[in-house]
Design goal:
Strand content: 5-15%
CATH superfamily of the largest domain: P-loop containing nucleotide triphosphate hydrolases
Structural class: alpha/beta
Number of domains: 3
Shape: globular
CATH architecture of the largest domain: 3-Layer(aba) Sandwich
CATH class of the largest domain: Alpha Beta
Radius of gyration: 22 Å
Number of helices: 14
Number of strands: 7
Length: about 325
């Protein structure tokens, strides 16, 4: 075990921040440290928070963290906020402390913004690796808040044990949740900004969609609760925290905790394999054999599909062994 990993296990926040940076940047030192910490992972409840832009996800996370610590003051909570990537700096645009001032200075809270780096749907490629570091460091729960755009809202289901989908009335449609398969991944539905006039219609739409997804409640099945909140004043947050606790208990009792954990690890392993494959391919396309076949495509002597097949079977596979 390295000095850095030992410092992380001993609760050194500076060492933790440094290791997360090394992991984010995909350095050899970061990978080695993460390998050393892996045996100390697997205990933490990972909560995903997703939903449409403007629904108030950050405000909800703020309040939820405060409520968790009010209930269990000895806990340490981590928040990973996945932000859009700046095209100029490559760093996270919104930043963590700007959006979560209320909890940022709490010694029991660790907040980290991660740039999406152009990953599909905006979820940072290394989010799960960072959550493993925080897991080993003793943070429980870990809350991953995603950017409110596209596929990331569905991707979070493969990274978290429990998924909170945040909706709000008056965002254009009656309810945004009908899009992108969001209802299929929600464990808890939060209707934020419940002091708005359109809240009853929004809740009715949510209940209609839930009824279609869960036509008959089988014994032991988890049916997502719909909870109203006003995150700006903390209204309804205690009920959300209670639902998170209940879902964690359900996962353990039903055996679904292990299933979701296996999915998380499978996604991580697959992502690492895809990254290695992509790196090898990027190196290969600069070789002479690639250019020779590509020249035949340019001259219309070889069709692209046939060229790809030849490159893959005759050259790439041989060179990658």
């Amino acid at each position: 075990m390295t000095d850095l990993t030992q410092a992380v296990l001993n609760g050194d926040r500076r060492a933790l921040a440094r290791l997360i940076t090394l992991v984010e940047n995909d350095t050899g030192e970061g990978q080695q440290a993460l390998d050393g910490l892996f045996r100390d992972t697997g205990k933490t409840h990972v909560i995903g928070v997703t939903g449409a832009s403007g629904a108030g996800k950050s405000s909800l996370v703020n309040c939820l963290v405060e409520e968790i610590l009010k209930r269990e003051p000895d806990k340490s909570v981590a928040v990973i906020a996945v932000d859009p990537t700046s095209p100029f700096s490559g760093g996270a645009v919104l930043g963590d402390r700007i959006r979560m001032r209320a909890i940022a200075d709490n010694p029991h809270v660790f907040i980290r913004s991660m740039a999406s780096r152009g990953a599909l749907g905006g979820l940072a490629q290394n989010t799960q690796a960072v959550s493993l570091v925080l897991d080993a460091a003793g943070y429980d729960p870990i809350i991953i808040e995603t950017v409110g755009a596209g596929q990331s809202e569905v991707e979070i289901a493969s990274l978290a044990h429990s998924v909170i989908v945040v909706e709000a009335p008056g965002l254009g449609d009656d309810v945004q949740a009908a899009k992108a398969g969001i209802m299929e991944i929600a464990d808890i539905l939060v209707l934020n900004k419940a002091d708005k006039a359109e809240v009853d219609a929004a809740e009715m739409a949510l209940r209609s969609m839930l009824a279609m997804g869960f036509p008959s409640k089988e014994e032991g099945m988890w049916v997502p609760p719909i909870l109203r909140t006003v995150a700006t004043n903390g209204e309804g947050i205690a009920e959300v925290a209670a639902a998170v606790h209940e879902h964690s208990a359900y996962l353990h009792q039903s055996g679904n905790w292990q299933k979701r954990d296996q999915i998380r690890l499978q996604v991580l392993l697959r992502g690492l394999l895809e990254k290695k494959h992509h790196q090898e391919w990027e190196e290969f396309i600069h070789r002479d054999e690639f250019q020779q076949v590509f020249d035949q495509v340019i001259e219309r002597e070889l069709a692209p599909h046939a060229a790809a097949e030849r490159l893959y079977t005759d050259s790439f596979l041989k060179n990658s062994h």
